[in-house]
């Protein structure tokens, strides 16, 4: 409920509480101002007694009636007794002086508050009888004309009150429906907010799962590389050293010793490469665009090829898993371009396109037939299969276009997941 509604309810409560006093006071002032000073004392005593009874009744009702805007319209048996007694006092006072019809009009104010719904119209009709009698000149009536005027006024008063009561009931029904609609909207908003919170939690959980899957992939990759490169290299070194130990001639022994040293250097290089690929150090202090720019520039200086990097669209701070995946795809692609394609020019473009990020890598190398690629060997690198697996792990994709003698174009598309702040 708004502050305006609360204020209106408070004022309406005050009107219901103090209105009968005001109407009774108006009737008293006008009645005594127009009273016949030569009237019988019994009439005066009766008037004072009825007025005192009316004041006492209002004070009693004022102290016992339900209070508060949320309890104002609570019909009860006590309220019905109060309404009936007040109507009797008002009718008696109006019989003494028609100006007391002001007090009788209080029946129009609170019939819906004090009487059960089935008695509303009867209470309004009873109040209309008293008011119409006063308007017709006061009771008792003298002659057919006064009775005719009374009947006409009664029909007019009761009809008007019935219409007002009907409209009031409709407005109360509409207010109830509005209250129910607002409550339903609040429940819907609460459910929507809960769904949004659950969606955010699910999103965070998916990111955690993607991170865990990435860690597992890295462990599998590192285990495979250790087995395929370092472990086999160490096995070869052991075998060469065993030959040296069992060969008395210095010439063959020296040859096997050189082979063992070469294997050791190769295994050391493979170990360093595996460790470097385990975590993208380039992303520790820079965002993805800066890291890619440095990676491409360093690759160009190292290979002597012309390397260009471009960013399009509005740059976003990407989630670390997305950044790491794209950086590793570029590193693998540049490694392939140097080792296999013998490219003299490479272009890398990072495009931010609304809800996705696109990474394009093009070179002018020897190219190849994508359909004729041999199966991945145990001693080889990750290659295209590895890049594709990285992209798919974060719900992305990798497309390859190449032709012998016409270079290669790779395009990785991944969802744009922003960095967690």
How would you describe this structure to a colleague?
- It is built from 11 helices and 5 strands.
- The two termini are 37 Å apart.
- It is α+β, with helices and mostly antiparallel strands and 421 residues long.
- The protein is rod-shaped and about 155 Å long.
- The chain has helices at 3-34, 41-64, 77-96, 101-104, 107-114, 120-135, 144-246, 250-278, 288-303, 320-341, 383-393, and strands at residues 306-312, 345-353, 356-363, 397-402, 408-415.
- The longest helix is centred in the middle third of the chain and has 103 residues, at 144-246.
Mean pLDDT: 81
Report the sheet with the most strands, covering strand number, pairing sense and barrel closure.
5 strands, mixed
How far apart are the termini?
Answer: 37 Å
Overall, the morphology is: rod-shaped
Helix content: 55-70%
Query: What structural category do the secondary elements indicate?
Result: alpha+beta
Beta-strand percentage range: 5-15%
What is the alpha-carbon Rg in Å?
Answer: 48 Å
What are the low-pLDDT stretches, counting only 5+ consecutive residues below 50? 377-381
* Total DSSP E strands: 5
Order of helices and strands: HHHHHHHHHEHEEHEE
- Number of helical segments? 11
* Order of strands across the main sheet: 1-2-3-5-4
Summary tags:
421 residues, alpha+beta, five-stranded mixed sheet, 5 strands
Give a quick summary of the entry.
This protein has 421 residues and is α+β, with helices and mostly antiparallel strands. It has helices at 3-34, 41-64, 77-96, 101-104, 107-114, 120-135, 144-246, 250-278, 288-303, 320-341, 383-393, and strands spanning 306-312, 345-353, 356-363, 397-402, 408-415. The protein has a five-stranded mixed β-sheet, with helices on one face.
